[in-house]
Design goal:
The structure holds two protein chains of two kinds.
Chain A (H helix, E strand, L loop, with lengths): L3 E12 L2 E12 L3 E5 L6 H9 L6 E6 L2 E2 L10 E4 L11 H11 L4 H14 L15 H13 L5 E5 L7 H18 L2 E6 L2 H7 L2 E6 L2 E6 L1 H6 L4 H6 L4 E10 L4 E5 L4 E4 L11 E6 L4 E3 L8 E11 L6 E5 L5 E5 L14 E6 L4 E5 L1
Parallel strand pairs in A: 3-8, 3-9, 6-7, 7-8
Antiparallel strand pairs in A: 1-2, 1-4, 4-5, 9-10, 11-12, 11-14, 12-13, 14-20, 15-19, 16-17, 16-19, 17-18
Chain B lengths: L2 H32 L1 E5 L2 E4 L2 H8 L3 H33 L2 H12 L6 H12 L4 H8 L13 H25 L3 H9 L4 H29 L3 H7 L6 H11 L3 H26 L3 H4 L3
Antiparallel strand pairs in B: 1-2
Helix pairs in contact in B: 1-12, 2-12, 3-7, 3-9, 5-10, 7-9, 7-10, 8-9, 9-12, 11-12
Classes of the chains: A alpha+beta, B mainly alpha.
Chain lengths: 360, 285
């Protein structure tokens, strides 16, 4: 049996008639970076508060290192929380903030001084000790908040969208730094976010949450390339969406007619479909070959460039099909892109496997 | 002078007139009076004899000490009663209940101080409500006088000052992010440590603001100690009143006024030093 730091079994939390967390179960192996990704209001914060002990589940059990913590109050649980707005104590210095938890444990002064110095070293701010909180930059506050929790050596560190308050550049930087910090401490991280790129970049495992339930739990690659549900396909990464009906089901291929009358050959369906089943199709912009024809029996769609959306390496074209559908495709980083001006004709090559299909 | 500067001066003028006419000029006058010694009828010299009289007296320094000590106790009692109330209103109560509770704190201030003090006299006097109740309940056999003692003064002062402690406390505690309290628990604190290490240090500017106002109001209060304390009141403001009105000794009265001013300034300074706060971050918020 693998070594689980955190094990949640059939957790349910209701507020009146509203079910915020609906029968959620998961296990996190020791030292993993686990993210819970979902839109706001999906129940992820409620789930986190139950793990921290600030809310009690109506049903189910939470086990930390094999022992149930349902009856353990938040100040006795071997988990610590990095708050959304960090919640550093403004009236204390950095050292006092970090020492707060150690003092509550009744550790000796010399020991506390040593532990604080050590953790400051680890987060790369060895001289920050005497500073006041308002003298720190956003990124430094972030690291101090993590140091304050990590100095207590929790079994699980919970993080509640801590990067939300930072500006874009710093957020990109902190993503990498957080992952490095996690690897260095070797502690299990449970990271809550609505930002898919944070979840995908940092995590070993991501759980996509919607309406109180886990839609899919998997590695970032699995979520991206093999979404289990239409919600995951639409929420993780960008995708063109098309609605249609199944025309025929064949050997690993599905023929679909879209509502606009487009005939497409898609990959195997994720779910039971018959001829006539209403389906939703997802197509990632980078899976479309602009101008180049795909090998074998792919879809070749004649279209016209309606607009070029320049964004460096992520530049896209907006192509309008004769059927009226508009498709976003990644602009190739080759010379072929030069000919793709507004109004120019273009052939979009789409491999059947790139068209992911879910019954509605 | 440009139009905008003129506007500024005009807006400023009432305040300036107020400070100048009611604060600065009377105080200068008091200072001059307090330094005047009467050597013969209508013959005066400049000197510190009035202040020397205060120091060498057996009664006045004691009265001042008593007044300061009682005002400090009043401030402490007001804080002890007011803090849980303020915390409840700021952090626990929500919506209409919060507004209603706040209004309840404000309600006594819709009548003047003298009416409030008379209210307490109705309750505490020999033939008052409390005495009557105790007789009715057979706790005592005869009427009991609760007025004209130190406890009565204290009750009146605390009641009169409560709002001035609660309002600044509510406004600072209101600014305390709930996440800080949760973080306090999450990192291993219990109810007591979260209160003493996080809530109270955070509310310190509000605590000091409230304490300074309550202390000053109590120290300078005349009506409440006189009415509730009677002859045993021995409040320093009553001594000042005596010198001016009963004894016609304006010189000594002025000296007393200045001594009270200096004492209160010293005490406030000391309190700020002890709590590590500055005047600007307590009252300036």
């Amino acid at each position: 049996m693998p070594d689980f730091d955190l094990d949640c079994r059939n957790l349910v939390k209701r507020f009146g008639t509203f079910t915020a967390v609906d029968d959620v179960s998961f296990s996190i192996p020791r030292g993993a970076f686990f993210s819970i990704l979902g839109p706001s209001g999906c129940g992820k914060t409620t789930l986190l508060r139950m793990l921290a002990g600030f809310a009690a589940p109506d049903q189910g059990d939470i086990l930390i290192k094999g022992a149930s913590v349902l009856r353990v109050p938040p100040n006795k649980r071997p988990v610590n929380l990095v708050f959304q707005h960090l919640a550093l104590f403004p009236m204390m210095s950095v050292t006092e903030n970090i020492a707060y938890g150690l003092k509550r444990r009744g550790q000796r002064r010399a020991e506390i001084t040593r532990a604080v110095g050590e953790v400051l070293e680890r987060v790369g701010l060895p001289d920050a000790g005497p500073k006041r909180i308002d003298q720190l930059s956003g990124g430094q506050k972030q690291r101090i908040a993590i140091a304050r929790a990590m100095v207590l050596d929790p079994a699980v560190l919970l993080l509640d969208e801590p990067l939300g308050a930072l500006d874009l550049k710093l957020r990109e930087h902190m993503k990498i730094e957080l992952k490095q910090l996690q690897a260095e401490f070797g502690t299990t991280f449970v990271y809550i976010t609505h930002d898919q790129s944070e979840a995908l970049v940092m995590s070993d495992t991501v759980a996509v949450m919607n309406a109180g339930r886990f839609e899919q739990v998997g590695t970032p690659e699995e979520l991206y390339y093999r979404p289990a549900t239409a919600f995951v396909a639409g929420f993780v990464g960008d995708a063109n969406r098309l609605q249609g009906r199944v025309k025929a089901v064949g050997d690993g291929r599905t023929a679909v007619t879209t509502e606009s009358g487009l005939e497409l050959i898609a990959g195997p369906p994720s779910g039971p479909v018959r001829t006539g089943t209403a389906v939703e199709l997802f197509l990632r912009p980078e899976a479309i070959a602009c101008g180049g024809a795909p090998d074998g029996a792919g879809n070749r769609l004649k279209a016209r460039v309606e607009d070029v959306l320049f964004n460096g390496a992520q530049s896209r074209i907006l192509a309008r099909l004769p059927s009226g559908d508009s498709i976003e495709a990644l602009l190739p980083q080759t010379g072929a892109a030069a000919s793709l001006k507004r109004g120019a004709p273009v052939t979009l090559g789409v491999a059947p496997e790139a068209l992911v299909l879910f019954p509605k | 002078m440009t139009a905008s500067r003129l506007t500024l001066w005009l807006l400023f003028a009432p305040f300036l007139a107020w400070v100048l006419l009611l604060v600065v000029i009377p105080h200068i006058d008091l200072l001059i009076l307090s330094l005047r010694e009467k050597v013969a009828p209508r013959v005066y010299e400049t000197g510190f004899r009035n202040y020397a009289d205060f120091i060498t007296s057996s009664v006045y320094p004691w009265t001042l000490f008593r007044t300061v000590a009682f005002s400090l106790v009043t401030t402490a009692v007001t804080f002890v009663i007011g803090f849980p109330v303020a915390f409840y209103i700021a952090k626990v109560a929500r919506g209409r209940r919060r507004a209603a509770l706040f209004l309840l704190c404000l309600l006594p201030f819709w009548v003047s101080e003298i009416v409030r003090v008379f209210g307490w006299m109705m309750i505490l006097r020999e033939t008052g409500l409390l005495s009557g109740f105790l007789q009715w309940a057979h706790v005592t056999s005869g009427p009991v006088e609760f007025l004209y003692n130190d406890a009565a003064i204290m009750i009146g002062l605390v009641y009169t000052s409560m709002l001035f402690m609660i309002v600044p406390l509510i406004s600072t505690i209101d600014g305390l992010d709930d996440a800080l309290i949760e973080a306090g628990y999450d990192l291993g604190g219990n109810g007591v440590t979260v209160m003493t290490r996080i809530v109270i240090p955070y509310a310190m500017p509000g605590i000091m603001a409230g304490s300074i106002v309550v202390f000053m109001l109590s120290l300078g209060n005349y009506l409440t100690p006189t009415l509730l304390g009677g002859k045993n009141g021995q409040w320093f403001t009553a001594q000042i009143y005596n010198q001016f009105i009963t004894r016609f000794n304006w010189e000594l009265g002025s000296a007393f006024g200045f001594i009270l001013l200096i004492t209160s300034t010293l005490v406030v300074w000391l309190l700020l030093r002890l709590s590590g706060q500055s005047l600007s971050n307590t009252l300036g918020r």
